[in-house]
Amino acid sequence: MRGLETLGRVRLSRYFFMRDFLYSEIANIHQLSNIPENPDRAIENGRSFCRLLMDPLEETFGRIAVRSGYRSPTLNSFGNRNHLNCARNDNPLECHIWDRGTADQRIAGASVVIPWFADQYEAGRDWRDLAWWLHDHLAYSEIWFFPKLCAFNLVWRPVPLRRIDSYIAPRGSLLRAGQEPEETTAERQRRYADFPPFRGIPMPLAMGPG
């Protein structure tokens, strides 16, 4: 208990602590623990994820809701075997296991909701307005959108793939890794012209808007 309490108090970034990502409905319902096998690696990757991706969202839009954060390998494997919307542990796109793999496989991610945008989405706004804002402002690796609340998986890697997919119509790939956006910069900017001013860390020039 003391060790888990200490882990939860680890500060990952300006706005986020490890505890923000440890809650799991699967763990609670099935009485499983959700403790990293390699806490140091989980913290290291979680810090990169939060500082580069989560903090700019919070700075810009206000409080960000975490729907599904860290999952231990044991918990994620259980979720996959029991068809609880968890990818296999060895799936290269499984972003919730922050402490797995070797240095070149480092990854961290979470399913999140931006309440500010969720309200507009419920009123009929196109999810692609947010998708292109994320593309033009954050050094993300992968983003997957889901119909409920316009939630999305947001993923960090040391070398980002820059890929966007969606389960919201039009379903499929909005942007494949290595592909240039079909919409011009000006067209994308018109989509999100009414968004709050961006507050965060600018992307590296090599990863800027396509």
The assigned structural class equals: alpha+beta
Describe the oligomeric state of these chains in a short phrase. Answer: single chain
First CA to last CA: what distance? 47 Å
Number of strands: 6
Q: Which series of helices and strands comes N to C? A: HHHEHEHHEEEEH
If strands are numbered along the chain, what order do they take across the biggest sheet? 1-2-4-3-5-6
- Low-confidence residue ranges: none
Q: Helicity, in percent?
A: 25-40%
What is Rg?
A: 17 Å
What is the average of the pLDDT values? 91
Number of helices: 7
Question: What keyword list fits this structure?
Answer:
6-stranded mixed beta sheet, 6 strands, 13% strand
What does this protein look like?
The protein is α+β, with helices and mostly antiparallel strands and 210 residues long. It has helices spanning 2-8, 25-30, 39-61, 73-81, 115-122, 127-137, 185-191; strands at residues 65-68, 108-113, 142-145, 152-156, 163-166, 172-175. A six-stranded mixed sheet has the order 1-2-4-3-5-6. Helix 6 (127-137) packs across helix 7. The termini are far apart.
